Amino acid sequence: xxxxxxxxxxAALKDLRGxxxxxxxxxxxxxxxxxxxxxxxxxxxxxxxxVKTMPKTYEQDGKGGQARAFLHYFKGSGDWYITGKDCDLxxxxxxxxxxxxxxxxxxxxxxxxxxxxxxxNVELDFYYTPKTLNELNxxxx
Length: 141
Fold this sequence. Notes:
The protein has 5 helices and 7 strands. It is of the alpha+beta class. Helix 1 packs parallel to helix 3 (37-53). The termini are far apart.
C-alpha cells in the first residue's frame, strides 16, 4: 500500500465530513502535523474508502447476523455499529444509517442518526475492523 500525502488526507477528511465530530476533527488536525502524521494520513484514507464503499441501507437486508458492520461509534457503555448508510436525495450529505445499537441493555437493530451521535460527542472508532453482527455479539457474551 502506498502512503497518502497530506493533500490525499485532506481529501479523505472531506469525504468523512458528517461521520466525524468536531472534537475528533480538531485532534486529527493536530496529529496530522506531528511526527506520526503519515500514520494518520493513511488511516484517514482507509476510513474514507470504507465509508465510500460501505453498503447503503437495505443492501444487506436479509443477511441477519451475517450483515457486516463497517463503522463503530462509542461513548461510555454505548456502542453503535453501522451496517449501511443513507444519503439525502441529492447525494451530498449523510442523513442516517442503519445498524445495531447497544446502550448496555442488549443490542437492537434500527436506524441511527449519525448527526445525533456527533452532536452528543459520540466518537468514531478509528481502529475498528469491520465484522459481522454475529461476531460482534459473540465478543460481548
